[in-house]
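Re: weekly structure request thread

Next one in the queue (241 aa):
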Amino acid sequence: MVSLAAFLAAWTLLARISGDPTVLPSPVDLLAPFFQEVMSGALFEHMSATILRVIAAFCIAMTAGVCLGLVMGTYPEVDRWLDPWLVVFLNLPALVLIVLCYLWIGLTDVAAVAAVALNKIPGVVVVLREGARALDPDLRAMARVYRVRRAAFLRHFVLPQLAPYIAGAARSGLAVIWKVVLVVEFLGRSSGIGFQIHLYFQLFDVTMVLVYSLSFIIFMLAVEWVLLQPAESRARAWRQA
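Done, posted below.
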């Protein structure tokens, strides 16, 4: 909180030195347009569109990444076969994926979500592959001795060990996904926070760019503090017990 107060104070000071709210508005100058967007419903409309895209891309990326990472970390033959493609997608720029998805699928939400998910899946795969490689072989041997069923082994032996890796991938994944979603909306959608930023960028309206940018940043920080950080702490708690 102290660093946040210092940031706001520095921002206010720089805005006062600038003396031109069209170039750098102060935090106080953002309040009126913010409440105007809230009252008109525009802010909630565009934020909800962005949030839905973030949720869809996040769920797809996490599901595919966890499954693929677990398989690659468990079966070396599969890992050797897929690793070159993993390296390719890890180094493929997000902009290229976005443009190709729009060209191949069209300017639709399907293309937008697909581009974001494809951009994040490799990162999740890398984290979960390392988690699968770090699974305790003694626990696997014990499960075989006691003939633990596959479903029970996955639930009680594998998932608790992978939980910290899944939580870490989720935190880093969400941080990347919402940024890429804004780029996707900036380039080819007619709704969302990224679309609004593009609109006001064309109008050279710094105030409205900051209103929409900061509104979504604050929302995502709230998700991080309220949901993701506590979930990661619970996932790591068994290691500290």
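The chain has ten helices and no strands. The mean pLDDT is 84.
Next request, please.
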